[in-house]
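>> received
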Amino acid sequence: MDFKQLQSFVTVVQEESFTQAAGRLFVSQSTVSTHIHQLESELNTKLILRTTKSLQITPKGRELYEYALNILELKERMIQACSIESRRIIHLGASTIPSAYILPQLLADFGKLHQDIYFIIHQSDSQGIINGLKDGLFNLGFIGMSCEDSDFCCQPFCKDRMVVITPVNEHFLQYKQQKENVLPELLREPLILREKGSGSKKMADNFLAHSGISESELQIIARVNDQETIKNLVAGGMGISIISEKAAHNFLQEKRLLAFELPQAFSERSLYLIYRKNYLLPSYVKEFLAFIGHSNL
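>> returned
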């Protein structure tokens, strides 16, 4: 198995045609067919079902396609890492809160001091970033939950806290005027939650579990990936949510949302910087790590 065979296979899957794949790769159709045949022989499985009128990818073919994409991406990363032009590119994986609300200013400040260092950023949930680090896709990751895997160095770099956000209307303004704990009443409202895999969802789950509340008792009306969408839905009166205060900050300043504090033990959290222990970090990545350590986050 070699890179040319994998590239031919990936291109056939993407183009859904041997002829178009050959044209895109600037090789003959017979070369593409040979590459696919060699792969199928080595793996002892059918990858593509081909007739005169159609082309169908088998389940094993779909599985190989995902692996092949990662392998070819890593190949390109390896080539880039060894080239002069891209020796000072830092690949970052970041979950929603760091990516949207912390990294923009942090990278801008760092860029003023190091104009020859560039960043490529991939956003996913916290678990997705951890998986990407395992696959070697990133130099560093920024996530919303701790990782206990012994292969990683995972250290807090910034504080955040979770709050309950609600629309600004007379109903919720009355809750604001009450001095007693209003959280039990608030949690009877229609609720919008984050997706599984995010640090924010994990914190919300911990709070609900400690309060003795199961999800089946809640009136969950939506699960939404994006924090900005959640804020707009809540501001529009669709329901309430439990999200990061950093994410809610601009809407709170503009008085488009109300915020209710959770008990301190279940609201405060750290955001984490994570990287592989056994990876040799380039000097410019270490410079960025040192800068983060001295930043007032």
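>> The chain has a mean pLDDT of 89.
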